[in-house]
Design brief:
The chain has helices spanning 19-36, 50-58, 62-66, 86-96, 140-157, 172-187, 193-201, 212-217, 230-246, 290-293, 308-318, 337-352, 366-376, 386-391, 412-415; strands at residues 40-41, 47-49, 69-72, 78-81, 105-114, 126-135, 162-168, 251-252, 264-272, 280-286, 301-307, 330-334, 357-359, 380-384, 393-398, 404-408. The strands form 3 sheets. Strands 1-5-6-11-10-9-7-8 form an 8-stranded mixed β-sheet. It is α+β, with helices and mostly antiparallel strands. α1 runs antiparallel to α5, α1 (19-36) packs across α11 (308-318) and α5 packs parallel to α9. The protein contains 15 helices and 16 strands. A hairpin with a 7-residue loop joins β9 and β10 (280-286). The structure holds one RNA strand.
Length: 416
RNA sequence: GUGGACGUAGCUCAGCUGGUAGAGCACCCGGUUGUGGUCCGGGAUGUCGCGGGUUCGAGCCCCGUCGUUCACCCCA
């Protein structure tokens, strides 16, 4: 009869009481600024045709080449659990013509994402993200607004010990010009095999290498920032100006690298100071070629993904989440069968009126039920027995003060 | 995928040079009839991650495996 215990799959993040309340709080903090800015919900599948990611995110990226959960479904279709959100949103926008109305199309989403990496502090195989996408607008003001929305979410949580890194990856011409010089520079560097292989795929990656000898050598490497075309440069100047107007401080980081191939122009990253190696709590940027790459019209886009798990970790590291226990309005303790039935009726009436009501079932000892009421943080407690039912009156006890007062059962809702 | 640390009750952990398991918190019951938070008394709980080996005997030693964790790679 004793079955073997089944554990959760490796590396997933799970939230259960009491911490789940903090998770919910953090997630809502990150979502609300998007809603307040007029973004609308898009709810998408967690699995997609594998080709969406190989084409959209880029075959050469680590995410696609070694971190995807890919499998064949029963119809022999290659399916992949989504490793990020933007590609799926673009697919849906193109498929359902969401780009046919007034632009920009402004969408937000939240949910689980999947990457088959080795788990680590703040890095899970299933993780939660909140994201937004603004599609079809080139105005630099939207870049700043998108960044501001992310920033507002982190501020709503109460985070202060983080910084915003921004840079511009420029347009195609900017990057092509820079790439030639960068490859020449790297060719003189005498790298080990694995590293030069990475450099061949995307030379920008070397800017991100944490090994001291590499990062030292890269100090003199040519920066993409100095190769920006005139239009890219102007756009970026505008973004910075709008950020200044918004009072959002940022660090210009020309060595910043993002892991997804589709980024162009403005890119940014929020980095938390107390988090250890996986310190990115959110990031995003422009992806002006993605729509066309996926078969849609050539529209630009900008968006972000924010890590709910990491934001929660950051909030705990900063100690900004108040230990707010669950609080119900009323806790009813029925004594006896008749009282149990009455309690069910009272509770459903009060709940219909929007009150949070719990009933202590199971015929526990009164003392135990009272302890349960205490633990739940209930504001009021009512003990319901035969005498209360016949009199139609209960003693309502306020848990914080211990004071009681008589209330007609029928007028409980107004008394609470 | 690579490397280090760890894996004992629900949680946090103790367990000396190998001799068949403990504390605190939490939980349950009680301290005279139906009112919590303090205090006192009592109680239940573990195949010591799993599998194998060494040994008269292993939670303590060895090997493997799974998991957790930290770092690299990479990223939210």
């Amino acid at each position: 009869m004793a079955g073997k215990k089944i554990a959760a799959p490796k590396g997933v993040s799970e939230y259960f009481p009491p911490r789940s309340a903090a998770f919910e709080f953090v997630r809502d903090c990150l979502i609300n600024p998007a809603k307040n800015a007029g973004y609308q919900l898009i709810e998408l599948p967690v699995f997609e045709d594998t080709e969406l990611f190989t084409r959209g995110v880029g075959e050469s990226t680590d995410v696609v080449s070694k971190e995807m959960y890919t499998f064949l479904d029963r119809g022999d279709r290659s399916i992949t659990l989504r490793p990020e959100g933007t590609a799926g949103v673009m697919r849906a926008v193109i498929e359902h013509g969401l780009d046919r109305g007034q632009l920009p199309a402004k969408l937000w989403y939240s949910g689980q994402f999947f990457r088959a990496e080795r788990p680590q502090a703040g890095r899970y195989r299933q993780f939660y993200q909140v994201g937004i996408e603004a599609i079809g607008l080139d105005d630099a003001a939207i870049d700043a607004e998108v960044i501001a929305i992310a920033d507002a979410g982190f501020k709503a949580i109460g985070l202060t010990q983080y910084r915003l890194d921004i840079t511009s990856l420029g347009d195609a011409q900017s990057r092509a010009a820079h790439r030639v010089d960068l490859l020449n520079f790297i060719a003189k560097m005498n790298l080990d095999e694995a590293t030069s292989a990475r450099a061949a795929i995307n030379p920008l990656r070397l800017f991100d290498d944490k090994r001291p000898e590499i990062s030292k050598a890269m100090e003199d490497a040519p920066l993409l920032m100095n190769y920006l075309s005139e239009s890219s440069r102007q756009h970026f100047e505008q973004v910075k100006k709008y950020l200044d107007v918004l009072g959002i401080s940022y660090v210009l980081n020309p060595r910043m690298v993002r892991g997804l191939d589709y980024y162009t122009g403005t890119t940014f990253e929020f980095v938390h100071e107390l988090l250890g190696a996986q310190s990115g709590i959110g990031g995003g940027g422009r992806y002006d070629g993605l729509m066309a790459e996926l078969g849609g019209q050539a529209l630009s886009g900008i968006g972000f993904g924010l890590g709910v798990d990491r934001a929660l970790l950051a909030a705990q590291a900063e100690g900004v989440i108040s230990q707010e226990s669950f609080v119900s309005d009323l806790f009813i303790i029925p004594l006896g069968e008749r009282a149990k039935e009455k309690a069910l009726q009272i509770a459903s009436a009060l709940r219909a009126g929007g009150k949070i009501v719990e009933i202590s079932f199971g015929d526990r000892a009164l003392k135990g039920s009272m302890k349960g009421a205490d633990k739940s943080g209930a504001r009021y407690v009512v003990v319901l027995g035969d005498s209360e039912i016949t009199s139609g009156t209960v003693e309502v006890k306020e848990m914080k003060t211990g004071a009681t007062s008589s209330v007609k059962i029928d007028s409980l809702i107004s008394a609470l």
